[in-house]
Amino acid sequence: MKTLSTLLLLLLTLPGLRAAEPPFSATARQTMLARFTQEVAELDGALLATPERVDLYSRRGDRHLFLGRPAQAVADFEKMIALDPAQDAPHWRLGIAYHFAGAWAKSAAQFAKYHAYDARDRENGIWKFLADARLSGVEKARTEMLPYTRFDREPFPTLYEMFAGRKTTDELFAHVAAEKLTGQGAVVFFADYYGGLNELLLGRTESARKLLAQAVTSAWGQSAEGGPAYMWQCARLHFEALPAP
């Protein structure tokens, strides 16, 4: 029998029931976006002087995306590939830019290409599924999910089961609580973010809003570096794109 403390922990990890956290402040957001805007201007100048620099297009594309300009991000990322075709297969960021631009077929194709390049990336399969679901509906997209033989990173095994329709969003958070993963910032961030996207895909906008807000307010997400930092920016963009409550 579960103890009272275990049951309370479970309740607190279900969507919308976690204790409130301080929001990502408007001042911090404005400062961040001003920095990205300044960096784009600097990269514009650098590319005028050296228009064949793949790394400059890469950096500018990221900043365009973070500023909510997915079409410009797509243009920069596609220019990278035109200059260096070896950039194509591993370019998961282009798949994400296509996603935010609403180019679902191109997004799905880019993630399928990336899967052929790196068949161990679990997030890749989720993003392809999200694009396929927009193209042909959730049920058909579930039949076309990328196959994986190795799951070694929480909470992705359960996330994949959730998107496949074999677990609910509530069961995802029950798993996180049962495995005592609630103290792990990365696990909670990805559960909130992808749990929120699942709710959004299923038309449950308000529960999606709560989960995406929790992802955006994640202290771990805000301090992450590399790919995780990229995903925090994506969570912020998804949250900011929601219709007003």
Summarize this structure briefly.
The protein is mainly alpha-helical and 245 residues long. It has a domain at 25-88: Serine Threonine Protein Phosphatase 5, Tetratricopeptide repeat, CATH 1.25.40.
Any descriptors?
Serine Threonine Protein Phosphatase 5, Tetratricopeptide repeat, mainly alpha, globular, disordered N terminus, single chain
Q: Looking at CATH, which topology of the domain at 25-88 would you report?
A: Serine Threonine Protein Phosphatase 5, Tetratricopeptide repeat
Distance between the termini: 39 Å
Percent helix range: over 70%
Number of helices: 14
- Main β-sheet: number of strands, strand sense, barrel status? none
User: Shape, please?
Assistant: globular
Unreliable segments of 5+ consecutive residues: 1-22
On the 0 to 100 scale, the average pLDDT is 89
Estimate what percentage of residues fall within beta strands.
Answer: under 5%
- The tally of beta strands, per DSSP, is 0
CATH class of the domain at 25-88: Mainly Alpha
Order of helix and strand elements from N to C terminus: HHHHHHHHHHHHHH
Describe this protein's structure:
The protein has 245 residues and is an all-alpha fold. It has a domain at 25-88: Alpha Horseshoe (Serine Threonine Protein Phosphatase 5, Tetratricopeptide repeat). It contains 14 helices and no strands. The protein has helices at residues 4-13, 26-49, 54-66, 70-83, 92-101, 104-117, 122-136, 138-143, 156-163, 169-178, 185-201, 205-216, 219-223, 226-240. The protein is globular, with a radius of gyration of 19 Å. 36% of the residues are buried.
